[in-house]
Amino acid sequence: MTPVKKAAAAAAVAVTALAGAMATASPASAATYGNECGSGYAVVNSAAIGTKGTVFLTYSSATGKNCVVAKRNSAGSAVLVEAGLSVNPAGNHWDVYDGGYYTSYAGPIYLSASGKCVDWMGRISGTEGGKRKTNCG
What we know:
Blueprint: H1 3-24, E1 42-49, E2 53-60, E3 65-72, E4 79-87, E5 96-102, E6 105-112, E7 118-124, E8 127-134
Antiparallel strand pairs: 1-2, 2-3, 3-6, 4-5, 4-7, 7-8
């Protein structure tokens, strides 16, 4: 086989291998709420935490409380995951907060805020998501 044919054959093998690897690679799946706040809590709002996960704001009419969970797209080695929840405006500190090195999620954290707006956030390895002055009432 000539050097040109060898190079062409090697390139064809490399392209085929790359195509096979791309076909079997699965895209990252988004985090889903799994009743981490407990029974009776339903998702009323959510926000992406970049491409790393989702922060969920839930509410229970039975308890009158909001609950926040910051959840990674997929569990893995422990990384810094944080969740914060406050009556608006949050100011310099969250009314309730949970943060640590977790494999899956931070929270649940709970707060009564009847008739008020809430600020809430989730942070995973420095990437933050959340909303301010929402779910008023």
